[in-house]
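Q: What would this chain look like folded?
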Amino acid sequence: MSLTKEERGTLQQFLLFYLSSSFILFAIIAYLFYSNESRYFYEQNKKEMQIDASNLSSQIIHAHMNATPLSLNEIVKSFSDKIGFYDRENRPIASSIKTPIDFSKTLYRDREKMTFVAHNTFGHLGVESIVIQKEGISHYIDSLELKIIIGLLVIYLLLSIIGYFLAKLFIKPIQMKRLQLDNFIKDSTHELNTPITALMLSINAPKLESPKNLERIKLSATRISEIYRDLTYLMLDKEGEETPLTPLFLNQILKEELTYLTLLAEKKKIDIELSEESEIYFKIDKESFIRLIHNLVSNAIKYNTINGYIKITIRGNHLIIEDSGIGISEKYHAEIYNRFYRATEQVGGFGLGLNIVHKVCQAYHISIEFESQLNRGTTFILEFNQ
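A: My prediction, written as structure tokens:
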């Protein structure tokens, strides 16, 4: 199903908002993660250097107090990181550190290294300061940054894919409504064209007042009137306006409506049989009941087969309309009352009829049920409880 320009614009706006907001959110999360990990890394290295400096200070003090030999140069050679021992004048006694030292600070760092300065030897063995320098900091930071960037890009890519499918799901109902409206406009044009063409041909016919020609004019005008009433019933329905209702004799109204509907059925050689086993009186607006009956019976005619039948039975407070038509597939049963919905493209129609039926039943608390099998026919059962 192709997208219109407006739908593509809506899809792009949704994706832009989704992706930009997601990027900002995950960029903040990535920054916080980076800050936390780098802080933890520096704290761990600081603790290690503090422990190393404390152990070395203890060795120096112990050696000086007990007059035991201690080679500072050997310590420098065997130490895993760079280390230096400095006197009171900050001159190196033994050191592997080549860079200048800021002895006023306890800990400082740059992207390449961390430097820790300890002053807890108290001058034993002439050592006033122990400096430990840990290199390779940039390697860890670069690796951390690379992992976060790759992770962010992977997550963002996944979010983009998910966002695209979410956007498609988001736009699908709009597409469906647009398609239904497009089909409605096409169908309404087709539906109106038939009776209008018939009217024009009948008006220009040589024998304008012949019974057959007048009947054709009547049927065409009635069909246009029905289309108009269906549309106004749905589109211009004035909810909330209540008028006093008196019980109507539904049998009589049904028979009056069947007088016209029988003419339509005859064109498809469909037999309509009415069986009145009881009488129904019900409080309902007459026009609404006509809409109800007309749409159910006209659908039974429209979706019936040539030489088919329609059986209408009034039994107790039930009105049963059974046809031998094409039926409705079970997978469409839940959707038949939706506006503009049509289960088949084989015959004309707006997809409004059953929506009107459902609205009338809801308005007057009429229970409606149906049974249908594909290629076997459909039966609607209406229950009128006042």
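The longest strand covers residues 129-135.
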